[in-house]
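Ticket #4471: structure output looks truncated?

Reporter: J.K.
Steps to reproduce: submitted the chain below (470 residues) through the standard prediction queue, then opened the result file.
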Amino acid sequence: MRDDADPAAKAVSGIEGTRRVLSWAIVVVGIGVLTAFTSYLWDWSEVFIGGEAPERDEWLELVGAAWLPVVVAAVIRLVRAHRALTTTALEALDAFDQTVHTSHGWAWRIDHDRRILHSSDGIRALLGYDPEDVLGSDVLDLLHCDESRPLILARLQSEAATKNWDDWQTRLRHRDGSVRHVRSSVTPILSKEGRGSGNRIVAYRGFTTDVTAEVVAAAADQARELQEQAAHARISAVLADPRALQIVFQPIVDVRAHRTIGMEALSRFAGEPYRTPDVWFDEAWQVAQGPALELHAIGVACAQLATLPADIYLSVNVSPQTMSTPRFTTLLADLGADAHRIVVEVTEHAAVTDYDVLAAAVKRLRGFGARVAVDDAGAGYSSMQHVLRLTPDIIKLDRGIVAGIDEDAAKRALVTAMTGFAASLNMTVVAEGVETDAELKALIGAGIHHAQGYLLGRPAPLTPAVPVPT
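Returned output as attached by the reporter:
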């Protein structure tokens, strides 16, 4: 598991040896002090008991005896200090030993031939080996790729080899074949005679930690940043190139009068490979360009209002976030009298967190004469929240409710209830995604008067004469 001289064991052994030497020294000094004190008492007993006059050496002994308490006190303090130092050192060594043998870091030592002399238990968690498996092995055999060998060998042979290596990052091969990104701190060990001349290296010791998660996370962040930069460039190119975005229009039909009453503006993007509009808008929102792309599409659509007959409205898709921006307010203001021909379909790219703000935006656009529609009603809780909180002019039923309604009594009951609810609040219901005659017949039976879908007209660019379904 370890080489013959575990650093922690050596340190503990050295401390214990020092303590034993000091203990013997204290004993010897104590015996000497006790002997001297006994000698002093014996000599002075002859003076007090025998009545002899004290001689010069006896007076000197008295001076020496006066210093005995000082010597004893110094020895006692030295013993206490030694004990405290020993306790502190042992606690520090124990903490070091616990860190080395319980952490995921790997403490190691190699000789000048790169052979592993010491390995802590940390290698097990790091690389899947037992410490005994790698003792005597060339540390370079643990590298993941051979191209690292020349770089490491060059560094070992350079003048920098005698200096510490901090935050040295490499890749090691785990026992299971996977790759581990690691960071090491390496300290060269110099021979005693080499310190003064030549600095001959006899070994290296170091500590290696696993930074795979950190490296993988950094790589993912870099990849995400590159993707965001690419996405930002794509959206910016669309905003700058008039040919990159085309607006097609799908008719909204009064199925009783068999005439087109409105057109929904839908975006189509050029470029290869082809990507659907929802992918483009989702990407724009991811790079904080969602409002810019929406406003660009709305602007292109509104520029074609003059091509539409005056009695046909234009329906545009706008998210609540974009609807609340000053640029959208300015766009409506610039339309002048044509703003009353605009229907704003509220779509969602993010949950509405403040309906008061959205309601204020709705009030502003109604001030220009525009109307509000809630898109995809019935598709989820949020769309119904829009209906209840915004009281729109138009409710557009989601394709999920319309599809197969001719064969589903529950859907017919739901649509019938929705039309009754809308009529009570002076709202209009538009059924989206109508594709079959049977679906259209069932919708009419449920009270639907307005609809759109492939059955009634596919999205297409405007032509001088707007096709009217019959």
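Triage note (M.O.): checked the attachment and the full token line is present. The chain is about 50% helix and 20% strand.
Status: closed, working as intended.
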